[in-house]
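hey can u run this one w/ adenosine-5'-diphosphate bound, need the structure tokens asap thx
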Amino acid sequence: MFPELLKHEFERFYSTKPAGIYFCPGRVNLIGEHIDYNGGLVMPCAINMGTFLVMAPNTCGKFRIRSLNFDEHLEIPVADRYKKIGGLWYNYPLGIIDRLAVAGSRPGGVDLLYFGNLPIGSGLSSSASIEVLTAFALNDYFGLGYDRLGLVKLAKETENHFIGVNSGVMDPFAVVFGMKDMAMVLNCQDLTCKQVSFGLDDRILAIVNSNKPHNLAESKYNERVRECNVALGLLNRYIRVENLCQVTPCQLEAYKDSIPDQTIYNRARHVVEENERVNKAAKLLKESNIGAFGELMYQSHHSLKELYEVTGIELDSIVEFSQGWEGVIGARMTGAGFGGCAIALVEKDAFPAYSNALIDFYEDRIGYKPSIYQCAVSDGVNWLRC
Ligand code: ADP
Ligand code: MG
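ok here u go:
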């Protein structure tokens, strides 16, 4: 349905036929939060909601960039370099076009039309989705020669250096390498990745959007990155490690006094213990011990609440409610936090009652409703058809 609608709109806007249609998913992170920029293990999977792109080359020597999700659009002549223009959405594709140009790949003028069915700005990585989608489509259509890992790096560079967010490698990696019914165990230091079976069978992977805008997320995210660097610097006076995830929980305990600031110590403790939890979670999935996996999800959320302080009353309410509901296996916030989404693993039979009761509970406590989606674990970015 979306591709047909998008093709129709493309022809209306640009008075030309589409030449390619592409889709890139969003992602949820099952466990391993605020770990990727600390060089540890994360466990994301791609989901069946994401961003569509219809594109065609043009002869007017411009990039024309539109999205059905936003009114603002851009027309900009083909050039060697681009600069970020204010804070608007089209900087994401423009940033990719700039990075490609820097690397010597300069496709001529192109018309681009996007549409996303992911909640935008809610921690499901719509930003990596639109970045990777742009890079994948231009690379595919113009034969620019990037492999999949090259696209991950391009998207990360764009977000870090063009958009100005210190995000890690997990998001672009997850939406590039996602596989149907598989979770990835990704080592963010060396980018090695193992796919672990994550068939849902008679369970539902629910996404609960708190519908709290995560306005604070960017500045607080960058603050956590800085705090982790401070902890690393202090620990490095005693043990030589390249990143916090190379520190074991025992080592952190042994060198506790090297981090006198309790807040900084708490941040480090979350990172070190969360990394361990991902290791355990991967083993549990292999053993199909989904009950114990769910327990780790709760532990992860608790640590993000108490030690890393990135949850807030909205996400805490969702998880607290879920933990008390029969048939919920596990729940936690996912993404950067400060609002955004939580995930819950729920027995299929229990889901309808759980979902209705959660909406009432949340609205009572918070004052507005959450949105709840059932999602499937899906493949990464791809060409659809034309
Ligand atoms: P998240 O990645 O958690 O969804 P971000 O704040 O990192 O949140 O990225 C959201 C931004 O990405 C949006 O504000 C917008 O600029 C851009 N974006 C994502 N999806 C789309 C889309 N379909 N159309 C246009 N811009 C989009
Ligand atoms: Mg993002």
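Residues 266 and 306 are 8 Å apart (CA to CA). anyway lmk if its weird
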